[in-house]
Design goal:
about 260 residues, 2 domains, five-stranded parallel β-sheet, elongated, binds adenine
Length: about 260
């Protein structure tokens, strides 16, 4: 039984060919854990020339994607309960919490725009939501749809070989991921931290958690502020250790330590 179906509507379906064959996503599709359909919006346009765009009312640059083919495409693939998302820099911004939310849906319809965007009535008529992958502008929604598909599919049960991988990902616990190392133990004079060589799993977990806190504090004050607020409420044993690491980090900052804390 398939857990999630993603339908991608695009004017460039060929861009998604390799997405469906390689890597974890390809394997999940072959195993039937997910389904992906890629559909050409132009197939839903009528007339001899299958026109999908037109000039904007009121003037302005670029062409606007027309209501009729886009709405017809959405209506042809949407299933009961399906969630329709138009990729757009104007949308709600994607983060791991949104990814988590989307991974619980039965169907996502990802609509990729090009040119100056969609006629606004596409959104009004279909109730589609707008989703952005970040505050920058792409030439079209295809790369964004790929990002959403890959991020969401990792959370579909059974897609990742080891479900712990998703649990330890950056952001999933509000912290960035700790650094990782593999052989050789020394590279150009740089050693793998000895804490990782002990074979003591509890000690390794504590070391990695401390690294995560340090790296998050150094790079992401926004995530750190949330982490500190949550930490103030926590009473578990890990919280005590987290507080100790945090106070070291803050002391180092107060001293203006030039040393990198991660
Ligand atoms: N299309 C163009 N830019 C985009 C962005 N930042 N996110 C999603 N879709 C887009």
């Amino acid at each position: 039984m398939s857990g999630l179906r993603i339908d991608i509507l695009t004017l460039f379906p060929e861009l998604f060919e390799s997405m469906q064959t390689v890597s974890l996503l390809g394997q999940a599709l072959r195993d039937g854990r997910m389904e992906i359909g890629v559909h050409n919006i132009r197939d839903f346009a009528t007339g001899r020339h299958r026109v999908v765009d037109d000039t904007p009312y009121g003037g302005g640059d670029g062409m606007v994607l027309k209501c009729e083919p886009v709405v017809a495409a959405i209506e042809s693939v949407r299933r009961p309960g399906g969630r329709v998302l138009v990729l757009s820099p104007r949308g709600r911004r994607l983060d791991q919490a949104v990814v988590q939310e989307l991974s619980g849906e039965s169907q996502l319809v990802l609509v990729c725009g090009r040119y100056a965007g969609f006629d606004e009535r596409v959104l009004e008529h279909t109730g589609a939501e707008e989703l952005s992958i970040g505050d920058y502008v792409l030439s079209g929604g295809e790369a964004a749809a790929w990002v959403v598909s890959e991020a969401v599919s990792r959370l579909v049960p059974g897609v990742l070989g080891n479900p712990d991988s998703a649990r330890c990902d950056s952001f999933s616990g509000g912290l960035l991921e700790h650094p990782v190392y593999t052989r050789p133990p020394e590279f150009q004079g740089r050693q793998v931290p000895e804490e990782l060589m002990t074979g003591n799993h509890a000690e390794i977990a504590r070391f990695r958690r401390a690294q995560s806190i340090r790296i998050t504090a150094a790079r992401r004050p926004d995530l750190m502020a949330r982490f500190e607020a949550e930490l103030a409420e926590r009473r578990d044993a890990e919280a005590e250790r987290d507080r100790a690491v945090l106070s070291e980090v803050l002391d180092a900052k107060d001293r203006g330590d030039g040393t990198r804390s991660c």
